[in-house]
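Intended use. Records like the one below are meant for learning the mapping from a protein sequence to its folded structure. Do not use them to infer anything beyond what is encoded.
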Amino acid sequence: MTTARTRGTRAVMIAVGIAVIAAVIVSRLGDVLLIDADVPPASRPESEAIVWPARVLLLLALAWITIGAIATRTSLVRRPGAAAARSTWLASTRPWRARESILGLLPFDRALMVIVPVGLMICTRIIQASFAPLWPALSGVLAWVVFTLVAVLLVRPHSPWPMVATVGGGIVFQCVFDLACYSVAGPLTFWSWLWSVAPVLRVAVLTVVFGAMAWTAVAIGGAANAQVGPRRATGVTMAAAGSALALVALMTALWGNAMLARMWRSDVVSVSLPDGIAWAAFAVALVIAVGGVFLARRSAREPAELDR
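Structure written out for the chain above:
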């Protein structure tokens, strides 16, 4: 109990620290991005058409999270699919229990542990792509894919399922936040308010977004620690996060301003990046990823047994 309480306290402290750092970063974001925005009208027909699909998806995602949280302490875990929801909940909120959360999972539950987060992410990005170009949605999906694959590969020959459960939970929470934003008044109205008339809202929203992403990276390290030890777990976190960030930065450097210029309707928001900032971000992310790979290498003395 003491160990669990200590880990929980440490996790909360890390989460708060991540949120503070993210707040500092996003508070300066307006000085980096070149933003030209108009005050939005009260409502937009194209936004209203997206609101209800977003709300339905939000309810389904919240139901998945609720089932996972309840199944952690009740007999609901015996129901089909509940064990998968429990695994993603435990692994993403208490990553030191990620290895425990996958014990006894049936093939059906393992399949759901992949299908539900991936399906939710794809549906959420389809909604996003309905009011913005495909590039931001595609880059987000690819970043999650690269993040997961790097983490899974670097913990080999141990079981990949703790990594899958942890990332799956992070994806679900990220989609819940995105869908909640879209469900308030429609994505176009929300985003135009975000970038034009509510700088405090922008700081709050982007702090949560970046903080949640960073927490998923920390959770991956916590889940990997039980399998490969602290040194390799640190490397897994650095390599996975660095690879995902490098991919997004590279896509932004190659096509960023051209895509950002078309990302919003001309009467809503125009956003662009100063020259060179995306390439600088790519270089930093690449260094982090390469350093992580070196840290995550398995030493010759480490046993190669598999976690089943």
